[in-house]
Amino acid sequence: MTHGSDLRAFLLSLDVETLVDFLCERADRDEELRRRLLALGGDGESSPEPPDESAQDDTVQFDSVLDTVQRLLDAGTSADVTPLARRTADRLVMAVRESDEPPAGLVDQLERAVSLYARACVAHPPPWHELAEWLADLAFDGPDGVEVCLTDFAEALGAEGVEWIRSVVDAVLAEGDDGRRGHVARALRLQIAEITSDVDTVVSLLSEELPRLDVSLRIVRVLRAAGRHSEAIAHAARALGDATGRNAAPAPVVEALERVRTRQSPVDISEIESLLNEDRCDEAWKAVSGYEPSDVIPLYRDCVERLIDSRNPRQYERAAVQLRRLRVLYRRAGAPREFATYLVELLSRHRRKTRLFDELRRARVALPKALAG
Description:
Elements: H1 3-12, H2 16-29, H3 31-40, H4 58-74, H5 82-98, H6 104-123, H7 128-141, H8 150-174, H9 180-195, H10 199-207, H11 213-225, H12 229-242, H13 251-261, H14 270-277, H15 281-287, H16 293-309, H17 313-332, H18 336-349, H19 354-362, H20 369-372
């Protein structure tokens, strides 16, 4: 099946309103498309000449398809955009490979396509083995400079898919390759340990990069997110002791480690707390990037509880959005399993609130199997 027929089949699967909205939006930005649409309706002065496809710029074509996929995902479409996102990523892989010196824009588009594919897989996951093989091929045999973020695909892969990739990674590590394949394997092994909340492996792998202070700080944050505060404090103290006399140590890193060692509050999170309490959730989410995930997770949990306990069904939609954000924070903190445990406990207490479950499904929050029915 050709790319053109694939796209045609996909567009035919869309509901009329979604397709019309998309065409109108594109026509507002593309005068040539607007003239051609008007000509189809008999309102144009003359039919435009067919475009010279050989002169079309591949980058513009890719951008157009990626914009379509992103718009549909942002709108929460029920259409399955996974095949289109996958084919676009595959075409970009080929385009980058065929170019002796691929432009930076093309590589950026590939990374965007992979990111959109990950989002599409959350709503319509492909068979786990197919997805796992594709990710392994992209990671080990794909273009240089493209990093695979397994965390984005963890939900679609499931435990079986993650375990399959782990077996591939272990086999590569057993080869003792010190080149690109070995580097990719070590990076993926760390991601897998983070996804599975294997804190000991995360710490062990990161420790191979010591005595860098930035790595020490990362280890401390992983330990804190796992609730192993005494170990975090001990590691911070050792790192600061080892750093004595090093003038090159970055001041913010030293200060962060010192706060952990002396059991001080990591940061002032009153800004986020105030925004959430004032129901300015979008502003709070934008500001979250300046804080450690483990510091703001309790605030988001309180926010979700408050929205659900309001007993106002209209607030359930907002609670679903905040739960999606809370899931992201847990992943950033390297503790996705803790989110799963939290979600089971939360929904078990509110299982009679059917409207809440409906909103969670609409927001693409994966419900625990025991409660999904």
